[in-house]
Amino acid sequence: MEQPSAIIKNTEDHLKIYILILNEVLGKKPIFHSYLNFCKLVGEDTMNYPDFEFWYYRFYRLYRGELDDCDQIINPVRKTIMDMPVSLMYKITENLDTVERTYLRSMNKCLKDIVDCHPPSFDVIETSTDNKSLNWKLNNKSFSCGLNDYGSCSLKILDSTIIRNECYFKKGMEYLSPVLKMPNLKVNHLTLNIMNGCTYLNDLLPIPFHAKTMNPGELESIDFSNYDIGYTATREDVLEFYETEQFKQANRVESNIYLYEIDLIKFSHLKTFKFRLNFRELVDFQMIRDMISTFENFESCELKSINNRDGFDMRTVAEDLGAEIPFGPLKTITHRYQTPKSKNHLEFKIEEEESSCLIKIVKVR
Predict the structure, then answer these.
(1) Burial of 72: CB neighbours in 10 Å, binned 0-12, 13-18, 19+
(2) Based on the domain organization, do 249 and 286 belong to the same domain?
(3) Domain limits at 166?
(4) Which residues cross the membrane (predicted)?
């Protein structure tokens, strides 16, 4: 309870007001109903509710014959949210959504420990960055931090906008990093979109973020198709990517990385994949066919190559696979290959586009 305001101590009618409050106490009505009745008699502006509460309970103690320690009443020890029972705080946080709990845990260690009792589960985490902004989405709530017209950064958190004279990327990561650090984090759909020319590429995830705790199949897909790394990634980069836990756990992978036939040995766990073929060297399509036919989890794939060299066109690919090629102009060639020692077969659909050759392979059971 707060100390009563000056309006009660200085008013000429204070004695009448005290009597009215005492009458409410003697009427043994709930305090809120007593306050409403009091306001009907003297007006809503005469006394606010905290002041009424102070005098109501002071008279109530006197009526019960209790000692009136005025100092303790006027200056009570303030209660905070941390004075609530842990079980009640757990129940409250249980009814918050994952995004609300994420920011509640940043307030203090006690709240953080209680929030962390609820395993964080996001359906969607989307992150994109370029040289002017960092944007992220947690489920259906969007956040951003980017450069404004005045050279400072604008941080948009839910319905509020905060202006800071700081690096937009550093400020944005102060809010995004704690989300990715949450213990036992579960994400159904994770998207990282790094725009070309972004100088903060290496700092996007400055904290450990691995798929090692995932069970096989929990990482559904990896998609690098919107980021043209085909020309920028070195062979060492590609081989390192194939050895990551994320790639080994994924079911589906789509990328602009150029694929060599020998790389397919790393793909046996995938259900589907889309890659570019290395067009700078001759491609052994029979080797690709024979390797894919041994993949137990395989469902389909798309392999695409730039058709800018002699010997790499639709007919050449079909001949290499042993397909029958009809006479005359063709847009598509379809070929079926019986998988050895199996009732399954692979269906090849070879399409020639304006500047590329597209090979679609599907396992037919």
Answers:
(1) exposed
(2) no
(3) 119-256
(4) none
Terminal-residue alpha carbon distance, the chain: 75
Query: What was the pLDDT predicted at 69?
Result: 56
Backbone phi and psi for residue 329, each to the nearest 5 degrees, phi listed first: -65, 140
| Residue 67 and residue 171 in one domain | no
Q: How confident is the model at residue 316 (pLDDT cuts 50, 70, 90)?
A: confident
- Domain boundary residue among 237, 256, 275? 256
Entry pTM: 0.54
> Alpha carbon of 79 to those of 1, 26, 296, 303: distances in Å?
10, 28, 63, 65
> CA 190 → CA 115, 121, 145, 218, distances in Å?
22, 12, 19, 12
- What is the bridge-based pairing of β-strands 252-259 and 221-223? parallel
Q: Please give the helix or strand (H or E) that residue 363 lies within, else none.
A: strand 356-364
SS3 190: strand
**Angle between the N-to-C axes of helices 31-42 and 49-63, in degrees from 0 to 180, rounded to the nearest 10:** 120
Considering its fold, how many domains does the chain have in total? 3
Do residue 71 and residue 134 come from a single domain?
A: no
Domain contains 238? yes
344 and 226 in a common domain: no
- Say yes or no: 123 and 146 in one domain: yes
